[in-house]
């Protein structure tokens, strides 16, 4: 099963922020599209080059947001269409034989949804692009496949902030909520993202997970494998 790379996980985080910024309490495909514009790398850059404007799209979504009081729950709910996008992204990654699900697969899934169904806000946002969707799709397909353990030099401050908030939210939920990554996934995000400033914050978590009696052998093996991959990268 493919895992989401660190940039794809940031898409989820940014999508939640966008849902709140546009006055909604649900993460829809349109919010995933806005989140892609905030993500470093190919998918976001292709959208910007195609004429996408984060300010314009935010304004359009905010104008269409339903009026009324916001729900009292803390975390925005993920709509069925947004879940379908993520399932389609994973399937597209498998078809491309990609080792991870990356933002480019999420963008391809959004374009697929917009072409096949009456996708509402998503279709209206994409219709604002001067670039035809088929041309955009061809450009996304031309992007190189992401590597399993690709590491970037120097994450932006926004990305570091988002990662810290993701870790904090997961810790507050004791890693038990389906809406947050597990302990092993959090560590994998840090080790594969190149977010060196966050490694120190993870030391107690890593030590506790490797020495705790309640951790099964499979999770210990995963953590040790991720740590070994980081050590090999540093020695290269």
Automatic annotation (TrEMBL):
Key words of the record:
Repeat
Q: Which domain of life is it from?
A: Bacteria
Q: Which Pfam families match?
A: Clp_N (PF02861)
**Gene3D superfamilies membership:** Clp, N-terminal domain
Clp R domain location is 1-146
Q: Does the keyword Transmembrane apply?
A: no
Q: What is this protein called?
A: Clp R domain-containing protein
Classification from the root reads: Bacteria, Thermotogati, Deinococcota, Deinococci, Deinococcales
């Amino acid at each position: 099963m493919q895992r989401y790379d660190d940039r794809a996980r940031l898409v989820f985080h940014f999508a939640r922020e966008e849902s709140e910024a546009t006055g909604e309490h649900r993460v829809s495909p349109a919010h995933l599209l806005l989140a892609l514009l905030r993500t470093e790398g190919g998918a976001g850059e292709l959208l910007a080059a195609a004429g996408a404007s984060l300010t314009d799209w935010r304004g359009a979504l905010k104008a269409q947001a339903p009026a009324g009081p916001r729900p009292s729950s803390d975390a925005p709910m993920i709509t069925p269409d947004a879940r379908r996008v993520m399932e389609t992204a994973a399937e597209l990654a498998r078809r491309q034989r990609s080792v991870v699900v990356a933002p480019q697969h999420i963008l391809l899934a959004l374009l697929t949804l917009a072409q096949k169904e009456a996708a509402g806000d998503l279709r209206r946002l994409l219709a604002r692009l001067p670039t035809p969707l088929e041309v955009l799709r061809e450009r996304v397909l031309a992007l190189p496949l992401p590597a399993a353990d690709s590491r970037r030099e120097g994450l932006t401050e926004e990305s570091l902030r988002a990662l810290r908030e993701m870790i904090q939210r997961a810790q507050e939920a004791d890693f038990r909520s389906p809406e947050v990554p597990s302990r092993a996934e959090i560590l994998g995000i840090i080790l594969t993202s190149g977010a060196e400033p966050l490694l120190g914050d993870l030391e107690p978590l890593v030590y506790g997970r490797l020495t705790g009696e309640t951790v099964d052998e499979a999770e210990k093996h995963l953590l040790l494998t991720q740590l070994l991959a980081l050590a090999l990268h540093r020695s290269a």
